């Protein structure tokens, strides 16, 4: 059975989204460049953030399962939009991985990150630039 997510309009250009299993709530609004006030994440911001969160989670799970020392991961994403049609055209993602693992294990962590289900679900019409840096 799939995960149920519900959403509703809560004001001009804004939504409230509820995660069924946990009850966690996320609110969105339209970005400034598309008529919104930009006070919250936009839906496309959440899409970009989901890519970073997914890969980070997968790397963490892989490290834990394989006993690879992993101190922390940070990610930074630059999202670029196209206008016709309006869509995400480019995601530039940098992962900063703090670990003292071997070079071979670091390659395995990077490989795990690239298996993220969000990445595999995004359109082939979107360009990805990924960097994995050991810090």
From TrEMBL:
<dbReference type="Pfam" id="PF02566">
    <property type="entry name" value="OsmC"/>
</dbReference>
<protein>
    <submittedName>
        <fullName>OsmC family peroxiredoxin</fullName>
    </submittedName>
</protein>
<dbReference type="InterPro" id="IPR003718">
    <property type="entry name" value="OsmC/Ohr_fam"/>
</dbReference>
<dbReference type="InterPro" id="IPR036102">
    <property type="entry name" value="OsmC/Ohrsf"/>
</dbReference>
<dbReference type="InterPro" id="IPR015946">
    <property type="entry name" value="KH_dom-like_a/b"/>
</dbReference>
